[in-house]
From TrEMBL, chain A:
InterPro entries reported in the protein's UniProt record: MDM35_apoptosis
Keywords: Disulfide bond
GO molecular function, one term: phosphatidic acid transfer activity
Domain of life: Eukaryota
Name of the featured protein: Distribution and morphology protein 35
UniProtKB/TrEMBL annotation, chain B:
PROSITE patterns on file: PRELI_MSF1
Source organism (scientific name): Aspergillus ruber (strain CBS 135680)
Annotated signal sequence range: none
InterPro entries for the chain: PRELI/MSF1_dom, Slowmo/Ups
Name assigned to this protein: Putative mitochondrial protein sorting
Top-level lineage group: Eukaryota
Length: 80, 189
């Protein structure tokens, strides 16, 4: 799995990525889309990541991109 | 604005491709060593459609010529924002990316789609399109040059991207196979 931008987040990121990939291939793709057993790991990883983005001074840039891309939800977050 | 587009077919099922796609930038991919970080910013499943929505931040160490750095300032580290949607019923992955770094000079919007192949069983169609726009003020001639050079660069990277992903797909199949064997043996013993 790829590394995190912040080395201090690598451990928790790897745990989360492994959990997600297992969920994705074994549950999500088999129709069990509502389970969320990786939530705890993700919230820990996000805490670490958000702190790092702030320290690196790129959180503003990232937030702006997230805002600018919200429109794509109208195109892709709907049934085919 | 210039548009770059490419299509190809991967000889792997959509399930395999869409799974391996999450680890496209991993050590198995020796063609993506410029990617130094892949971080998930958010992830959720839309309750109405079952579509998985993911936002990621991709960090690259680009080999940028020194004169470019001294001209525009900044460092060789660049960031890309990616938002993706997986529709498990329609079997479609859509990924939209845009550059965060140097976005005041050059805007690159890439859309990638993975769908089960229409022409080949158990395979996956890959479509990629990038819209490249130079934003720097100045002569149109210069903007055109910048865009042309960027498209050229993009097309080289796209080729490397495909080769690297092929390696990841092959490794994924092998590792999943071994894992299944291992689980089978454990059940038997």
């Amino acid at each position: 799995m790829a590394a995190s931008i912040a080395p201090e987040c690598n451990d928790i990121k790897e745990k989360y990525d492994t959990c997600f990939l297992k969920w994705y291939s074994e549950k999500y793709l088999r129709g069990k889309t509502s389970s969320n057993e990786c939530e705890d790991l993700f919230s820990k990883y996000k805490t670490c990541l958000n702190r790092a983005l702030k320290e690196k001074g790129i959180e503003g840039m990232v937030e702006e991109a997230r805002r600018n891309n919200r429109e794509s939800d109208t195109d892709f977050l709907r049934k085919e | 604005m210039k548009v770059f587009s490419s299509n190809c077919i991967f000889d792997y099922s959509w399930n395999e491709v869409s799974t391996a796609n999450w680890r496209k930038y991993c050590p198995w991919n020796d063609k993506s060593t410029h990617v130094v970080g892949v971080d998930t910013l958010s992830r959720s499943v839309d309750p109405a459609t079952g579509i998985l929505r993911t936002e990621r931040l991709i960090t690259c160490d680009q080999s940028v010529p020194q004169w470019v750095l001294s001209l525009f300032g900044g460092s060789a580290t660049s960031h890309v924002y990616e938002i993706s949607y997986v529709d498990p019923i329609a079997k479609k992955v859509t990924m939209c990316s845009s550059n965060l770094t140097w976005s005041n000079v050059l805007n690159v919007q890439e859309t990638v789609i993975y769908r089960p192949s229409l022409s080949k069983a158990n395979s996956t169609d890959f479509n990629q399109e990038a819209k490249i726009t130079a934003l720097c003020g100045g002569w149109q001639k210069i903007k055109n040059k910048v865009e042309e050079a960027s498209v050229e660069r993009f097309s080289q990277n796209a080729k490397r991207g495909r080769e690297g992903f092929e390696a990841v797909l092959e490794m994924s199949r092998r590792v999943f196979g071994e894992q299944r064997e291992h689980e089978k043996r454990q059940l038997q013993s």
